[in-house]
Amino acid sequence: MFIFNIKINSKNIVKIAFIIMSIIITIFFIISIYKILSESFKVRDEINIPDVSYIEASNYTNILKSVYENIDNYIGQTICFTGYVYRNSDFNNNQFVLARDMKTSKVNETLIVGFLCNCENAQEYSDGTWVEVTGMIEKGNYHGEIPILNVINVTVVDTPENPRVSPPDDTYIPTSIIY
């Protein structure tokens, strides 16, 4: 049987408690700093792409310009937009343009801009009918290579409050994703 005789005075207890508390605080501090730094340096490559991108009138011509200039970057994206049905004489029965009138620099002058749409029941919608179209962007040919909207859904809607759109901004930076 062993007997230990330890002599502890109050000065030693305070020193030991202070050292132990300092070590515990330092460990918590190091763990906290590690977690903060490890989270801040993680690469987040995931971009949440919406299933359907709803295009507003305010950015319609910017998106239209970007899609026309970079068709390959937008193939397969589904968009939804409101416009009116417009046809040229050389369109087939399943085609129309989802159109908007774009203001020009001249007073009261507009240009018709929009996506060419392929729609199985396109004949049901007369020229000038306002519709909301949901469709997938594909590459097609109409007097050259252009984006074509393969229509998934068409809904007749009322004429919007402001049916005209503005020309594309010079500050718009094209991307390959429509948000």
Low-confidence stretches: none
Shape: rod-shaped
Average pLDDT number? 81
CATH class of the largest domain, anyone? Mainly Beta
Q: Indicate the CATH topology of the largest domain.
A: OB fold (Dihydrolipoamide Acetyltransferase, E2P)
Name the strands of the widest sheet in spatial order. 2-3-4-6-5
CATH H level of the largest domain: which superfamily?
Nucleic acid-binding proteins
Number of helices: 3
Helix content: 25-40%
User: What is the N-to-C order of secondary-structure elements (H for helix, E for strand)?
Assistant: HEHHEEEEEE
Distance between the termini: 79 Å
Summarize the structure.
With 179 residues, this protein is α/β, with parallel strands linked by helices. The protein folds into 2 domains: 7-46; 53-165, Beta Barrel (OB fold (Dihydrolipoamide Acetyltransferase, E2P)), CATH 2.40.50.
